[in-house]
Amino acid sequence: MSRIVHVIGGGLAGSEAAWQLAQAKIPVVIHEMRPLRPTPAHQGDGLAELVCSNSLRSDDADYNAVGLLHEEMRRAGSLILTQADIHKVPAGGALAVDRDGFSAGVQTALAAHPLITIVREEVAGLPPAEWGNTIIATGPLTSPAMAEALLALTGEGSLAFFDAIAPIVTKDSIDFSKAWFQSRYDKGTGSDYINCPLSKEQYYAFVEALVAGEKMAFHDWEKDTPYFEGCLPIEVMAERGKDTLAFGPMKPVGLTNPHGPKPFAVVQLRQDNALGTLFNLVGFQTKLRHGEQARVFRAIPGLESAEFARLGGVHRNTFVNGPRVLDGSLRLKAQPRLRLAGQVTGCEGYVESASIGLLSGLFAAAELLERPLPPPPGTTALGALLAHVTGGANAETYQPMNINFGLFPPPPERDENGRRVKGRDRKKLYSTRARTDLGPWLELAAALTT
Predict the structure, then answer these.
(1) Contact by Cβ (8 Å): 238, 213
(2) What whole-number percentage of the chain has pLDDT above 90?
(3) Residues 198, 267: contact at Cβ < 8 Å?
(4) What are the CA-CA distances from residue 403 to residues 68, 352, 440 (Å)?
(5) What's the confidence (pLDDT) of residue 11?
(6) Is the dihedral of CA 221, 224, 228, 233 positive or negative?
(7) CA-CA distance, 181 to 183, in Å (whole number)?
(8) pLDDT at 159
(9) Roughly how many angstroms between the first and final C-alpha of the chain, as a whole number?
(10) Smallest Cα–Cα separation from 329: which of 358, 354, 364, 381?
(11) Residue 20 has pLDDT above 50, yes or no
């Protein structure tokens, strides 16, 4: 087996994976197709270019899951977080960077490493067998040739149309004095869905708010990509007629409201993760702006205080169905010499992509060095995100996801004094537990570099 690892893609995930491998004394070749083959979204040819925002979101490691992920990556020796801290700009409680300085810093560090070679070329399709261990980190704008090769290998839909994503809420934030568990006609277990009832007046007000709500504009590079007809945004369906939703995803048939009269329409929520802590709004893919989504969807009875683990969206994307095609160390089941990293796995966001790159690099290094490295504990941000990508999510409804506390196993509901812990204090329990549980795993990861 070759000791050289090839990394396809020089974005955040590919850059982080290459760094982790090189720190473990494994030679790496990074293959980046820009500038020979530009993408519709990138402006330059620097590695780790931030395409949209310059923010890596909240840096609060006590009460925010992405801030906790920042902390864990720093503890694991992340190149991306190191350079983000160096090139930080004022942004309140967020971690935002000078995007040009950040990209240049990452590229300089990689180019200066004696075990890293950067090659500017497109890898048009699956890498040759003689490359051996390879990490594919080609991002949401994976080239058509690579997307088609992954599709042929996995049999899964690497997507090149507008993928419509439904919002996800935490179960604990749903008001069950108004909502209830029941499947239509009591099919399945009889209680597979959470139901939120709307009267006729509430339904028509909801439809009016949907149609009038401010929508996200498409990027220029998205405009020629059609909607997937089987997954239309809910506001597009509402525009086809005020009763369309009542006879579609919000039909009230086969349900009995234990809290009151028969509803005119019903919003159903379906379990979205194995832990049963997250539920998605069925059929509620949307292009509404995020602020509008929170306002409109919290008008639904039972969701007045909903906490959104993910808001909806519609955008061009390329990713595989991770729970079906990846093993626990991010290898493709169909061809284990290939690992995936970054957004092509179905994670969402700069930091999440980089963290999956970090893990992919460490797993590849451990395999080559023949040293044990299990997945991080599921109670940590790294472990929770990895578990979601590789099996914790429902494969039938798998969609890109940012890190959030809904991906973690719930902590105890009561403290050592028997008091129920809620809200902000409960979030602190997640981060405190994660810090403790990550320690032993970090020792194993650090041993790879010695």
Answers:
(1) no
(2) 58
(3) yes
(4) 10, 7, 22
(5) 94
(6) positive
(7) 7
(8) 44
(9) 21
(10) 364
(11) yes
Overall average pLDDT of the 174-191 stretch: 89
Determine the Cα–Cα distance for residues 50 and 351; give it in Å rounded to an integer: 11
Between the CA of residue 108 and those of 48, 59, 320, what are the distances in Å? Answer: 11, 25, 31
Residue 183 has pLDDT above 50, yes or no: yes
Taken in order of first residue, the domains within the chain and their CATH numbers are 5-159+317-447 (3.50.50.60), 164-315 (2.40.30)
The answer to whether 48 and 11 are in contact (CB under 8 A) is yes
Tally of CA atoms within 13 A in the half-sphere of 346 that contains its CB? 29
Q: How confident is the model at residue 275 (pLDDT cuts 50, 70, 90)?
A: confident
Average pLDDT, the chain: 88
Residues whose CB falls within 8 Å of the CB of residue 243, separated by 6 or more in sequence, listed in order: none
Q: Retrieve residue 416's tokens.
A: 């050592």
Q: DSSP states of 195-219 as a string?
A: EEEE-HHHHHHHHHHHHHSPBPPPP
Percent helix, strand and coil across the chain, each to the nearest 5 = 40, 15, 45
337 or 35, which is more confident? 337
Average pLDDT over residues 341-347: 90
Omega before 35 cis (within 30°)?
Answer: yes
Residue type (1 letter), 68: L
pLDDT at 158: 41
Output DSSP code: residue 248.
Answer: T
Per-residue pLDDT of 73-83, as tens digits, reads 999 999 999 99
Question: Mapping DSSP to helix (H, G, I), strand (E, B) and coil, where does residue 336 land?
Answer: strand
CB atoms closer than 10 angstroms to residue 179: 24
Q: What is the pLDDT of residue 72?
A: 98
Query: Any idea which residue has 């402006």 for tokens?
Result: 43
Which one-letter amino acid corresponds to residue 355? Answer: S
Say how far apart CA 290 and CA 297 lie, in whole Å. Answer: 11
Per DSSP, the chain holds a count of helices (H) and strands (E) of 12, 17
> How would you label 153-178 residue by residue, b for 16+ Cβ within 10 Å and e otherwise?
bbebbbbbebbbbbbbbbbebbeeeb
Residues 354/365, Cβ–Cβ less than 8 Å: no
Give per-residue burial for 13-41: e unless 16+ CB within 10 Å, then b. bbbbbbbbbbbbebbbbbbbbbeeeebeb
- Within 10 Å of residue 413's Cβ, how many Cβ atoms? 12
What pTM does this model have?
A: 0.73
H or E element, residue 309: strand 308-310
pLDDT for position 221:
46
Per-residue pLDDT tens for 415-428? 778 888 888 899 99
